[in-house]
Design a protein that fits this description.
- The strands form 4 sheets. Strands 1, 2, 3, 4 and 5 form a 5-stranded mixed β-sheet that branches. This protein has a 5-stranded mixed β-barrel with strand order 6-7-8-10-9.
- It is about 40% helix and about 25% strand.
- The chain is built from 16 helices and 16 strands.
- The protein is an alpha+beta fold.
- The chain starts with a strand and ends with a helix.
- It has 4 domains: about 130 residues, N Utilization Substance Protein A, Chain:P, domain 4; about 70 residues, Nucleic acid-binding proteins (OB fold (Dihydrolipoamide Acetyltransferase, E2P), Beta Barrel), CATH 2.40.50; about 130 residues, K homology (KH) domain (GMP Synthetase, Chain A, domain 3, 2-Layer Sandwich); about 60 residues.
C-alpha cells in the first residue's frame, strides 16, 4: 500500500469544510513529516504530496545516486548498485525518487498519525469557529432552536455549529419551540474545557440597536446615530438618538409613520415599551426627556454629585416612576444622574403610585379606558374606590372589577 486514502482513513478531513484547503494540506504534511523524522531522523529529503480533492497522500524519498562505496549520507545519497535494482536505466549523478510504502511506518505509527491528525483538525475547527463568531460579536444572527432546557436553549446555525442562549439572556416572555428560527445578537465567545461556546443574547442593548439599524435606513446610512440604549428586557427601553442632518427628525424617523418602524421591533421584544428620545448635551433637558411620558414642572440639579430633584404634578408622579420603578430606573441609567421625584410645591416625596397604562399586559385596554373615563388614571385611584362604587360608576361587571383590583393589589404587595 503506497498511499493512504484520507477520505476513508481520516473522516475529520472530509468534514472540515470550513477549513481552507491550503491550511488542511499543511496540517497533513506536518503530521507525516513528524512520522518521517521519528523513523529516519530527518524529513529534509522527503516530499509529502497531498491531493485535497481526492484525499490521496503520497510520500516520495529523494536521494542522489553516487558511485558504490562513496555514500556518506544514507538519507541523501544511494549507491549506484542499489539504484539500478529499482530502475536499471539510472546513472550516477541522477536523483532517485522512490515512493515510500506506508506499511514501512508500522501499524502503531499510522494509528498515532491518525489520532494526531484528528486532534489537529479539531483544533483548527475550534480556531475557525472562534474567529468566525469573534468577528461577529454585536451582530444579529438567525438560528434554529435545537433543544430547549431549563437554564438555556441550544441553537444551530446554518453550518451546524452549536450556539447557546442562556436563560439570563432571554426576555422573560420568551417561549421557544424546537425547530423554530429565532433572532439574537452574538454576545461573546467563551472557552469551556478548551472548547469554544458561542453565547447569544436577546436582552443586550446591542440587540435593540441592531434591530433599529435593520428597520431604520437612516441609522444604517449613518444619518442618525444611537447615543445610548438602556433596557429592562420585556418591559421598557429608552433609546437616545441624534441626527447629523438638521432636516431629519431622529425620533420621527425611528418611530416611523404611525409607529410602522417601531412596531416590528416591539413585537420582536415581546411588547417591550420603547421610548425614543432626542439626545442633548443639556443635562436638564435630557433628564426631562428621559422621564417621558411624564411631564416635569421643574427640577433642582446638583451637577457635582450628579443628583437631580425633580418636581411634578400629582398626576405625573406615577408616570415618572413607572411600574415597579422601571421608568425612573432607566432614566437614571440613561442620564448617569440619581433622580428623586417629588410632588410639585411640596417637600414630601410622593406616595408610590402606578399609571394604569402600565398594566396593559394584564388588564384589557377597553377596561383601562372605562376606568379612565370615570377619572381613575392610576392604580391607587382605583384601589381607593370600593367595588360597589366602581360598579355603580362604570359599565364594568363586578367580576371584571374584582379581577382588576386583584392585579393592582398584587403589584402593590410586591412593592
Amino acid at each position: 500500500m503506497a498511499s493512504i486514502n484520507l477520505i476513508e482513513a481520516f473522516q475529520e478531513f472530509k468534514e472540515a469544510e470550513n477549513i481552507d484547503r491550503p491550511t488542511m494540506m499543511k496540517v497533513v504534511e506536518d503530521v507525516f513529516k513528524t512520522l518521517l523524522r521519528k523513523k529516519y531522523g530527518s524529513d529534509e529529503n522527503f516530499d509529502v504530496i497531498v491531493n485535497a480533492e481526492k484525499g490521496d497522500l503520497e510520500i516520495f524519498r529523494r536521494r542522489m545516486i553516487v558511485e558504490d562505496g562513496e555514500v556518506q549520507d544514507p538519507l541523501a545519497e544511494v549507491a549506484y548498485s542499489d539504484a539500478i535494482k529499482i530502475e536499471p536505466d539510472f546513472e550516477v549523478g541522477e536523483e532517485l525518487y522512490q515512493e515510500v510504502d506506508m506499511l514501512d511506518f508500522g501499524r502503531r505509527a499510522i494509528l498515532a498519525a491518525k489520532q494526531t491528525l484528528a486532534s489537529r483538525i479539531s483544533d483548527l475547527k475550534k480556531n475557525v469557529l472562534v474567529k468566525k463568531y469573534g468577528d461577529r460579536i454585536g451582530e444579529i444572527i438567525t438560528a434554529e432552536v435545537y433543544q430547549v432546557w431549563k437554564k438555556e436553549v441550544l441553537l444551530m446555525d446554518e453550518e451546524g455549529n452549536e450556539l447557546i442562549l442562556p436563560k439570563s439572556e432571554q426576555i422573560p416572555q420568551d417561549y421557544f419551540k424546537k425547530g423554530e428560527n429565532i433572532r439574537a445578537v452574538v454576545a461573546r465567545v467563551d472557552m469551556k474545557n478548551n472548547t469554544p461556546v458561542i453565547i447569544l443574547s436577546r436582552t443586550s442593548p446591542d440587540f435593540l440597536a441592531k434591530l433599529l439599524e435593520i428597520e431604520v435606513p437612516e441609522i444604517f446610512d449613518g444619518l442618525i446615530t444611537i447615543r445610548k440604549i438602556v433596557r429592562e428586557p420585556g418591559e421598557r427601553a429608552k433609546v437616545a438618538v441624534e441626527s447629523f442632518d438638521d432636516r431629519i427628525d431622529p425620533v420621527g424617523a425611528c418611530v416611523g409613520m404611525k409607529g410602522s418602524r417601531i412596531h416590528g421591533i416591539v413585537r420582536e421584544l415581546k411588547n417591550e415599551n420603547i421610548d425614543v428620545i432626542n439626545w442633548t448635551n443639556n443635562i436638564q433637558l435630557l433628564i426631562q426627556r428621559s422621564l417621558t411620558p411624564a411631564k416635569i414642572s421643574y427640577m433642582d440639579l446638583d451637577n457635582e454629585n450628579k443628583h437631580a430633584d425633580v418636581y411634578l404634578k400629582a398626576d405625573q408622579i406615577s408616570l415618572a416612576i413607572g411600574r415597579r420603578g422601571v421608568n425612573i430606573k432607566l432614566a437614571c441609567e440613561l442620564t448617569d444622574y440619581d433622580i428623586d421625584v417629588f410632588r410639585e410645591n411640596e417637600g414630601e416625596q410622593e406616595e408610590f403610585d402606578i399609571d394604569l397604562d402600565e398594566f396593559s399586559d394584564e388588564i384589557d385596554t377597553w377596561v383601562i379606558d372605562e376606568l379612565k373615563r370615570v377619572g381613575c388614571d392610576t392604580a391607587r385611584s382605583v384601589m381607593d374606590l370600593s367595588i360597589d362604587e366602581l360598579e355603580r360608576r362604570t359599565d364594568l361587571e363586578r367580576e371584571t372589577i374584582e379581577d382588576v383590583k386583584r392585579v393592582l393589589k398584587a403589584e402593590f404587595e410586591k412593592e
